[in-house]
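Intended use. Records such as the Site-specific integrase entry shown here are meant for training and evaluating sequence-to-structure methods. They are not intended to support clinical decisions.
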Amino acid sequence: MNMHSTKHLSALMNLVRMEVSFWRHKSKKKGYAQIYCRISVNGERQDIGSTGITIWYNDWDATSERVLDNDPHSHFKNEQLLILKSHLSAIFNDLFRKKEKITAGKIKRLHLNGQQSLSMTSIFDLYIKDCKEDRERNLNGSSVTVYNNVRKKVIDFLIAKKALDLPAEDFDLAWLKKYRSWMAQVQVNATQKGHSDSYISKHSQTIKNVLTWARLKKLIDTNPLEGHRVKGAEYGDPVFLTPEQFGQLSRHKFKNSKLQQTADIMVILCRTGYHYGDLEDFVKEHKTALQQGIDGKPWLIKKRIKTKVAARVPQFNEVKQIVEKYGGWEHLPIRPLSKFNDLLKLVAAALDLPPELSSKAGCKTFTDWCFNELHLTTDAVMVLLGRKSSKGLEVYGRPDERRVIHELEKTSIKK
């Protein structure tokens, strides 16, 4: 090694330094003390804890941090302290050679249980496990499914980048940008390439939340995305059924029973404002969720999965007729969401409806109908959709010229 390289290595070593210290701590047993260990890396301290060595309180030299010769086993005990110090130094040197980030917390973790830096995929697994077990969060199955979908996409991305073992602490802004770019170009299915901006933004926020959780749980020493503000989603115009398209959907009689059942369920979504998961929940709870309103008529009253706020929706005639057709809520032909959306694509093709039609269009069709056909206020729509705030409501629908015309006509009548 030449002189330049030696100086460069020395300079690097001076950037990160570790100090190992020992001290005595009074034992519960009178007259005795336990020897404890602490490490410090560039000012960051971590207590390693008890070394398991017990001495007489006065048999300790605080300056040299050694057991005095008065102890008949001083040689053995000092040797154990030296071994511990050497082990901690070996961990430090190994991290340095691997050019990994060195922190006191990481060295402690490696010393206590040999745990290497957790990979991004491992962190996701632990996060989802915690979500399922955390009673305070009380997450439903659909929320956990959303997190698991993000996990699967992250795994696909890391495989594509040949970085499946990427440590979570290394998933910084540069990696997040790579992920967003990959999500925008990946082949989703036979007809769709790339995910929407809103979908990518939601995934990015979930990744940031996972890393924040990992830092709080002390699974990682630093959050590489701390301080980064995820770009807000840019939503296009909502995909919904116009009144004419909805009429076509509700009136058409399909020869194929599965397509007819799918159309019927879509009509219910369009006249309740429910997401598919909310409809599944309502069917399970209909005996208590279908209630008599203050107007004496039946209302659908149930907390929304997403907002945890009760949505209060009158049972409109289209819904009543379909429920009666199948002999009750419990007999509705509810299928897994993926299967429903596949069948809905066939319904859309048969009726020349928007090809990207999915169950989500039900809530958006309902919102458009409320704003622009029933001419309801934003406050009223919030009650129907189970929302405390109008923030983000524009994603589902917004007043358009139909509402303006109605308002102008009301003004003209008053004049």
